[in-house]
Amino acid sequence: MSKVLVIIPAYNEESNIERVLRHSEIVFKELEKSLKVKLDILVVDDGSEDLTLKKVQNLGVSVVSHPFNLGYWLALQTGMLFGYQVGYDYFVTMDADEQHPPEEVYKILFPLIKKEADVVIGACLERGSTAKKAAWNFFRFLTGLKVQDLTSGFRAYNRAAVSVLTSKNYSIFENADIVSLLVLKKYGFKVIEVPVKIKPRGEGVSKLFSSPFKIGYYLLCSLIISLAKRSKK
Amino acid sequence: VKVEVLTAFLGIVTAFIIFFLVRRDLLHLKHSIFWILIALVVLFFGLFPNINIKLAHLLGIQYAPILPVLLAILILFVKTLVQDIELSDKEKKLRRLAQELAILKKSLFQKPEDETLNSKR
User: Fold this and answer.
1) Separation of alpha carbons A5 and A93, rounded Å
2) Quick check: A13 and A96 in contact, CB under 8 A?
């Protein structure tokens, strides 16, 4: 039976994490039966300063806790690193802010188990504002990537893709939604997209895009890395 | 005070500061080599100012005193870039160390009977 690790990075998500985990556990029990897989949840607490860690521990859900805040990508990478070392076959990444409904996990997991791709992205183009869509188009043009939803964090990876993404060299990335795709492209992995529903964020504000300065910083970093890492392949 | 004396003095003071920092274990030996070399170059140009004039003439620089300034900017530019590369490498290692520590902590405190990841499931 294949083993799947669902990685949920969390940073100061005390207001959402319990609901996400309780709901996911119920949904995943059903999913285990229908897909005939073993599904485990791993929360990666990214040095939260609130009660996120305590709440996850109280629920008895498995958690890895960073000693200090390392950022979204590093939290994902820690989860992948752990899962890879333990021997998981498939990896799903989903957010701790209720945006990624657990009911949609089967949509991204199913093609992976059927060996239709190495990486499956849960795409939701409706969620993008005009500005966001313009940014996606720009980065698609810049990188040559065929993926429509470049910034979706709702993804499923097989073991081979994870073995590459967990490389020590990639610990240097800040936000790796685009650059991880460039790395996967460079190594010739097959990446497909499936449409999924994405809900509005639960409580609180986005950590990544909470101010114009952070958005600007994100865009600038993405621009530099896109230019530096683009390949003709 | 003649500018040559001042420059030579600066070179000697720099060398002394570097030796002091190495003696107090405040500066890594590999970094001290760079600064000692800088001190020697400063001392050399201070003691032999004519070298600077000849070198500037050779390079087609009309105003000779600008040569050491240009060289200083160039060297500091390279030094800063090298420092940022080293810092990025350290950051990479620190991040991986933190990740490994987090995973190790989990393995240490994981209950032996907890075969699966989610004990309550």
Assistant:
1) 8
2) yes
Cβ separation of A67 and B101 shorter than 8 Å? yes
| CB nearest to B98's CB, from A40, A66, A85 | A66
pTM, to two decimals: 0.84
B90 contact A CB<8A: no
Model pLDDT for residues A64-114, shown as the tens digit of each residue: 999 999 999 999 999 999 999 999 999 999 999 989 999 999 999 999 999
**Nearest residue on chain B to A58, judged by CA atoms?**
B120
CA distance B102 to A77: 12
Give the sheet arrangement for strand A155-158, strand by strand. A62-65, A37-45, A2-10, A90-93, A155-158, A119-123, A191-195
- Partnered with residue A156 across adjacent β-strands are A92, A120
Contacts of A184 (CB under 8 A, 6+ apart): A118, A119, A161, A164, A165, A191
Q: Do A64 and B119 touch (CB under 8 A)?
A: no
Residues with Cβ within 8 Å of residue B116, at least 6 apart in sequence = A38, A40
Token reading at A152? 């979706």
Q: Which token pair is B101?
A: 């520590």
Shortest Cα distance from A186 to chain B (angstroms)?
A: 21
Do the Cβ atoms of A189 and A160 come closer than 8 Å? Answer: yes
**DSSP string spanning A101-166?**
-GGGHHHHHHHHHTTS-SEEEEE-GGG--HHHHHHHHHHHHHH----S-TT---EEEEHHHHHHHT
Provide CB contacts within 8 A for B67, sequence distance 6+: B52, B55, B56, B59, B61
